[in-house]
Design a protein that fits this description.
Elements (H helix, E strand, L loop, with lengths): L2 E6 L3 E7 L5 E8 L6 H18 L4 E6 L2 E3 L4 E4 L12 H9 L3 E5 H12 L8 E6 L3 E7 L2 E3 L30 H4 L1 H12 L4 H9 L3 H25 L3 E5 L6 H13 L4 H4 L3 E4 L5
Helix pairs in contact: 1-2, 5-7, 6-7, 7-8
The structure holds zinc ion.
Zinc ion binds next to loops.
Length: about 280
């Protein structure tokens, strides 16, 4: 069986062809060109599907997309102005009509959770929380063995929990949101501000070499990150917390810091489980 897999992000579209075991081949990346709008993007998705169809006779197409997605109809309910005109677009209908194969679409963080449960860090785990750290903070909730999407497909918007009331203004029009303090973009901004122009991998090198200034900034960020996580763990009592996003490449250093700080904020029974894992770990 061959499934065309497409991940639509704000800056790039990543694709691959998957078999029924989740093994990928022909990975490719294309620029999203988000500023050119929804119709342009839709044309691009159809072009990509056509390319994949030439490589393999596809049995279906699975799409992961930024924005809020109606997974029943495969429609974008809401996308920010990053991709103008993308909201309301019935992506799956257009894809399945043109290629005459079934098409599905879900929000990118939900897809991360589904993938991690299928072949990744949360394999055979029924209750877990997925947190992706990037420009913002995305969340997906896996409860009793299935994805919890919420009444209007908008569950798990954990990035906009208020962490510091009256704090930094956010794109959602509120102030003090979790992602304004604990996303990797927030860490990056603090690092730039305090230590000058520096990419995050270089910052992590400084932490590893014991630089005191870097460690102080890192610990403050970890403290904000785990304060939010602790509330979520108290509500959901998950057995695993899967950490995703580019920053999860920092591996054990990040994982250990999160786990240690999180455990100081939990009650004994929650602490017993709540095992932090990095995205993409195959067992
Ligand atoms: Zn917000």
């Amino acid at each position: 069986m061959y499934i065309g897999a497409i991940d639509i992000g704000g800056t790039s579209i990543k694709t691959a062809i998957s078999n029924e075991y989740g093994e990928l081949k022909n990975p490719k990346a294309y620029p999203t060109e988000a500023d050119k709008g929804g119709s342009h993007l839709m044309g691009k998705i159809l072009m990509i599907c056509e390319e994949m169809q030439v490589q393999e006779n596809l049995d279906g197409i699975a799409i992961s997309s930024a924005g809020q997605v109606d997974a029943d109809t495969g429609t974008i309910i809401y996308a920010t102005d990053t991709i103008p005109g993308y909201s309301g677009m019935n992506v799956c209908e257009q894809v399945s009509t043109k290629f005459n194969v079934p098409a599905t679409m879900d929000n990118d963080v939900n897809c991360t959770a589904l993938g991690e449960q299928w072949v990744g860090a949360a394999r055979n785990v029924n209750d877990f929380l997925t947190v992706t750290l990037g420009t913002g903070i995305g969340g997906a909730l896996f409860i009793n063995g299935s994805l919890y999407r919420g009444t209007t497909f908008s569950g798990g918007e954990i990035g906009h929990m208020i962490l510091h009331p009256g704090g930094k203004p956010c794109t959602c029009m509120q102030a003090g949101c979790y992602e304004r303090y604990a996303s990797s973009a927030a860490l990056s901004a603090t690092v730039q501000q305090q230590l000058g122009d520096m990419e995050l991998p270089v910052f992590f090198e400084r932490i590893r070499s014991g630089n005191a200034e870097a460690i102080v900034l890192f610990e403050r960020w970890i403290d904000d990150l785990t304060t939010g996580l602790a509330s979520l763990v108290l509500i959901l009592n998950p057995s695993v917390v899967v950490i995703g996003g580019g920053i999860s490449a920092q591996g054990e250093l990040l994982k250990e810091a999160i786990q240690t700080s999180l455990e100081t904020k939990l009650m004994p029974n929650h602490k017993k489980r709540a095992d932090c894992r990095a995205c993409g770990k195959r067992e």
